[in-house]
Amino acid sequence: MKLVVNRDDIRVDKYLGEETDYSRELVTKMLKEGYIKVNDKVVKPSYKVKIADEIDIDESFKIEEDITPTAMKLNIVYEDDDIMVIDKPSGLVVHPGAGNYNNTLVNGLMYYTDNLSDLGGNKRVGIVHRLDKDTSGLMLVAKTNKAHEILADDFKHKRVYREYYALLDGVFPSQTAHIDAPIGRSKDNFNKMVVRSDGKEARTNLKVLKRYKDYTLVSLVLETGRTHQIRVHLSYIGYPIVNDPVYNKKSATSFGQFLHSKVIRFEHPITHKKMEFESKLPQEFQDFLDKLDKC
User: Which of the residues are catalytic?
Assistant: First the structure.
């Protein structure tokens, strides 16, 4: 695997720990044993990468991080021999990575069943698409590789309908909106995405459901699936999601952003039956709306 560095003045072990699925500890081992080279040279883990450095990773180094099946309560909305539909709670990370190898949805799925697709690798068994840690709601899981392949193609070609509910800071003036703004990684903060002219195309459709004194409840349908797309787009237009710890400047509780994957509609990858599921808002989200209704 080859990477071209897009950041400056950061340790190579830290950079690769964030840019790849390898943990920082594993990156350090690979660097010391010569499996990772920068500009065709072996470097120390403390080497500070520079923009345009070329990193070559010899993936024959196959030490895998142990991923332990973990007992957890899964809200399984639907299950058959090929797929599952999960209602993910806010706060649950979808798959292991960046030093977090326990208490993710993947750990819970591995404990629940041995029948999960492995096309995404050991750290993403069953995972066809993902939700941010603090985004709640419906997710599809593939139990067979055939189902995974078909669903992945359906997502790629926008044949899966997903509708989100979000509560915005501020009173949105229009009834509907179409946000068309390219998204890329922030040059100042690797953990944030931003609207930038050289980013990837990103389009979000918004519809107002209810206005409150200082807030707006909206539904959102994505035409593209960029990282943090909804959160970035809403912050960009000046109506960030309530309680978003990254894209809203106001303080947030540990619950995270009020963003919920409310509806998912798709064709079953094997039976071709039309499937549709809808999930209730998380209790904390609903309680907040109930308080607004009483104001």
Answer: 132
